Amino acid sequence: MEIQPLRTSIEKTIQTMLGLLVLEQPNGFPRYESNLYIVTASGKILWKAEKPDPNSLYSRVRLNDDETISAYTTGGHACELDLRTGKLLGFTQIA
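and the corresponding structure tokens:
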């Protein structure tokens, strides 16, 4: 599936059962939005990931076997997110 980035450039994509998990480049991305989201096969954005801090953006992402997402932010957070909703399940400040 060919997708266009919302704001910057696409850094990583992961195919999931819900659609394509997209991580956009955090540099230059607006801080008030989330740069991690899922796009369905029809091109609709299913969700944008909840952030642990309004001024942080996601910098790394990995899909886990238990249908959660592990991600790091530019603010030094290690996060676990629900694949189905994009909601935070928990996070830790690591920096």
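(Above: one complete record from the training split.) The chain has one domain: 10-93.
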